[in-house]
Amino acid sequence: MSIEVRHLSKHFGAFQALDNISLGFPSGELVALLGPSGCGKTTLLRIIAGLEYADSGQVLFHGEDSTGKHVRDRNVGFVFQHYALFRHMTVFDNVAFGLSVRPRSLRPSKADIARRVHELLELVQLDWLADRYPDQLSGGQRQRIALARALAVEPRVLLLDEPFGALDAKVRKDLRQWLRRLHDELHITSIFVTHDQEEAMEVADRIVVIHQGRIEQIGTPDEIQQQSASPFVCEFIGQTNRFEGNIKDGWADFGDFRLETPPRLQESAKLAGYVRPHEITLHNQASDNSIPVTVASLKRLGPIIRLGLVSTSGQDIHVELASQQLPKDTEVGARLFATPIQAQLFAV
Ligand SMILES: Nc1ncnc2c1ncn2[C@@H]1O[C@H](COP(=O)(O)OP(=O)(O)OP(=O)(O)O)[C@@H](O)[C@H]1O
């Protein structure tokens, strides 16, 4: 089931939460809506679900206009961070709920419901918890049961709003890998909201970066990271170093170093160059293209070393290297030369 939204806008009073959003969610993909708090991602998800209505624009399910359709007629499954399980019902009854409240003519038999519930509990690998109550589960187990409950009605689309937001880092990491595997098994078109770029990178086929109610970029995790569409995306997706420069003799000139410039930037007055921590090499000797720096901090994380450097002009520079790439005898206070090997360049 593909989903498309066209020219969606939404105001809350004078505040514009969504500003003319158009995009498609291809059938069977797992797409992340990523952006800072308040950027409009939950509002977009709720409009797709039918829990909220846009001021203008359309929502199409499989090419069919569903804009005015009630939530119960859209056949979507939800997993929301605060959409708790029913506390007075067992795990089994929670998962069975969506099927057992169907009108009599559409309701499967008791035996069919039981079979389906056990299949789903097996899918989320928690069949052994069928008789427990939600209070007797861990947070991660509760979210997996919530997912089983959402899947029980065989939704055409699965919508997840920060599904693992309230969980601790380790459980969160496990659950997102598990969600990815589950998606690979089921291939239900799924959209999940997150403000955690690492989560989006790890789980999604495609990421939609939203900022102030507008789409900044749509792309695969690699495209978003390596070909960011704007300085905002560059800064939002993981750690980066920003350098300011300008065009000199056809090069992007940043004082201590220079880089090749694409033709589209040749006329720019000012440039911002974003260099990721792993895109910088360190040397004992100066070269034409190196920044003199002092090592301010050095942290070993297994085979990786993270360094905090300060340039002579006072700029902080973050670097990440494999330990064998670190110049010999480097310690805090050492003077080195940092060479950016590539950058994403923008006119500013
Ligand atoms: N019912 C409402 N009434 C008034 N303002 C609202 C309402 N719902 C959302 N907003 C505002 O619209 C903006 C977008 O909200 P939304 O919940 O979509 O953001 P979000 O990107 O999901 O943020 P978060 O990650 O914090 O949940 C926010 O500034 C929010 O305060």
UniProtKB/TrEMBL annotation:
Q: Where would I find the ABC transporter domain in this sequence?
A: 3-237
Q: Which domain of life is it from?
A: Bacteria
Keywords in alphabetical order = ATP-binding, Nucleotide-binding, Sulfate transport, Translocase, Transport
**Any Pfam family the entry gives:** CysA_C_terminal
Would the keyword Translocase be found if you checked this record's keyword annotation? yes
**Xref: SMART domains:** AAA
Name one cellular component (GO) term: ATP-binding cassette (ABC) transporter complex
The record's InterPro entries line, in alphabetical order, gives:
AAA+_ATPase (IPR003593), ABC_SmlMolc_Importer (IPR050093), ABC_transporter-like_ATP-bd (IPR003439), ABC_transporter-like_CS (IPR017871), CysA_C (IPR041193), Mo/tungstate-bd_C_term_dom (IPR008995), P-loop_NTPase (IPR027417), Sulph_transpt1 (IPR005666)
Q: Does the keyword Transport apply?
A: yes
Any one GO MF term held by the record is:
ATP hydrolysis activity
Protein name according to UniProt: Sulfate/thiosulfate import ATP-binding protein cysA 2
Q: Which organism is it from?
A: Alcanivorax hongdengensis A-11-3
